[in-house]
Amino acid sequence: MTVQELPGAAAYRPTPPPAWKPITDPAPLLPDPEPYRVLGTDAVADADPELLLRLHAELVRGRRYNAQATALTKQGRLAVYPSSTGQEACEVAAALVLEERDWLFPSYRDTLAAVARGLDPVEALTLLRGDRHTGYDPREHRIAPLCTPLATQLPHAVGLAHAARLKGDDVVALAMVGDGGTSEGDFHEALNFAAVWKAPVVFLVQNNGFAISVPLAKQTAAPSLAHKAVGYGMPGRLVDGNDAAAVHQVLGDAVARARRGEGPTLVEAVTYRMDAHTNADDATRYRVDSEVEAWKAHDPVRLLERELLERGLLDETGVERAKEAAERMAAALRDRMNADPELAPMDLFAHVYAEQTDQLRAQAAALRAELDAEQDHDEHGTEAGR
Amino acid sequence: MTTAAATAGGRTTKAKPATMAQALGRALRDSMAEDSTVHVLGEDVGTLGGVFRITDGLAKEFGDDRCTDTPLAEAGILGAAVGMAMYGLRPVVEMQFDAFAYPAFEQLMSHVAKMRNRTGGAMPLPITVRVPYGGGIGGVEHHSDSSEAYYMATPGLHVVTPATVEDAYGLLRASIASDDPVVFLEPKRLYWSKADWSPEAPAAVESIGRAVVRRSGRSATLITYGPSLPVCMEAAEAAVAEGWDLEVVDLRSLVPFDDETVAASVRRTGRAVVVHESPGFGGPGGEIAARITERCFHHLEAPVLRVAGFDIPYPPPMLERHHLPGVDRVLDAVARLQWEADS
Ligand SMILES: Cc1ncc(C[n+]2csc(CCOP(=O)(O)OP(=O)(O)O)c2C)c(N)n1
């Protein structure tokens, strides 16, 4: 059969493939060419002074919290601490943009966000102290367990937001992830599901420059992490992650958008991890001091403090007061963390299944016997009970 | 609320031949009708009704929000199910094939299996993950794996597998009702097996974790599950001619493991063979044999033997009959149970 013999051949004209649909305009989804800023720009005039003061108090507290938690690792009171020093603006803003009924999905680095949301810092730190994986009831606080397998918490946020929407509840989920985590498959799957389902989710990527030692350039060839949003059909927003007012505004807009039923947003906050990956890491192996110094000049606490001082919204007494409040929090945290946690070895078997299996019952009995023998030994200094 | 029994409403409920696939579909339907928090999600489960048609009609009856065609990404499906369960739903996830459940392993191992434990019991995840598994259907590469060993080696998961039409219904209902995550392994070569079964008055299994003796016997015990049950039943019939009266135990659930039923049977017979398709090395049979030895050593007349798939990647379909444990291999193993010592 030649072309001439094909049915309708007379009318044959090249056309786009039949199943092809005109591409939706990606322009509204594209991030700004530069990270959005409020502090030091005209936009600051519109910022609510009360909010700025609140943010400032939280940033000062957050900075002190990070320092205290890091100190606790040196005293052997925490097994490990991934500090968010330098990233406090993101941590605090993420907490403050949410309503009580909303959900936060933090990673291991985000205990500060949980604390800024009102979680007891001791409960937030049990994972890193090593006495229990999750020190709080996630449903009570609407804070998912701190998540260590990278990006795996993101699909949970999508599923939860989707379920809430199906039930007709006005609930938004905000999920946090690092720049390295954006390379994981779960990041891709979560964003794709969220966009297809129009789930009320906000993804906050804290681009702090490194995944342990690996810089962003080895992580992605995308124009920016925010640009990845476009491929999923959701807006990408690029924001100065050290400008608390800007992060709060961009996240707030994204939350409002989700609430209106318009679907998910990806926010890339450009920030910097001032400390090593954790207390166990040596950052001098992969980055130079001059880079760290440059970021010190763009410190989130100082950026906001300067603005408030210059505009007369805060004076030196106000700064002192914020510091004192932070000191009190740190002292209380230190005192409470200096007490040995109560360990419950028998709980190891208590929550594996709803109903304990015979197998676990037998193993629990064996451990019980070992513990009793240990106690006997301690009490009588003999091998009695063995 | 409409239960299966209630819809029967006085009509005579005669048992007719039904397939395992139909019983599974009915179990999903009845669970969804009874509990509005039950949501089915997976690849092609909506409009198509699943590649094995297990979810046929569910989207039509309950709507796309209750039976959802998801994007094609197993980790995303299971991860989303975790979030849905966190919010109080009871998701039933369909993995299209055994080997295509692997992308979801991180979610399964790190979150589904552990969430109850890592939250001190505060946040259990009532998720059922349905996985068609095993060979014998002429599937090309990656469509015939027996992956139960991975699941049963993961504390926090229940691992359930039916071998009969009635159990397909009862065990799936029980799995969906369970407040713990269940990996529900469906022996795909038994999807079209038939039995007299009344969907109007299905016998529900009240709890998972109990094995059942499918055939009583005195000479030796065959311990098996899922796709290998019919093989063992056939072997037991054939063994009569050899003078062996074999007992057959259908485990139905690998986790929890019913030590009681297994040990009681082996203590009676004194001999045991474990039969499964999954590769023998590191497979369920090793664990089962060890448990029997620990409990029944003084009753054993012979070592516990295993008849399992070879320790090879699953073969191409034209060669799979050489791999799958069949009646002859089971009888060979029975013959090696040191009968000489008896006489
Ligand atoms: C799936 C997975 N792979 C590897 C790790 C080990 N790990 C922990 S943190 C980390 C770096 C993550 O970097 P990023 O996502 O940028 O977050 P950041 O630590 O900078 O906050 C790695 C590789 C992990 N936790 N999970």
TrEMBL record, chain A:
Keywords: Oxidoreductase, Pyruvate, Thiamine pyrophosphate. One of its GO terms (molecular function) is magnesium ion binding. NCBIfam families: PDH_E1_alph_x. This is Pyruvate dehydrogenase (Acetyl-transferring) E1 component subunit alpha. PANTHER family: 2-OXOISOVALERATE DEHYDROGENASE SUBUNIT ALPHA, MITOCHONDRIAL. CDD domains: TPP_E1_PDC_ADC_BCADC. Residues 67-331 form the Dehydrogenase E1 component domain. It comes from Streptomyces californicus.
From TrEMBL, chain B:
CDD domains: TPP_PYR_E1-PDHc-beta_like. Residues 18-193 form the Transketolase-like pyrimidine-binding domain. One of its GO terms (molecular function) is magnesium ion binding. PANTHER family: 2-OXOISOVALERATE DEHYDROGENASE SUBUNIT BETA, MITOCHONDRIAL, 2-OXOISOVALERATE DEHYDROGENASE SUBUNIT BETA-RELATED. It is an enzyme of class 1 (oxidoreductase). Gene3D superfamilies: 3.40.50.920, 3.40.50.970. Its EC number is 1.2.4.4. This is 3-methyl-2-oxobutanoate dehydrogenase (2-methylpropanoyl-transferring). Its cofactor is thiamine diphosphate. Keywords: Oxidoreductase.
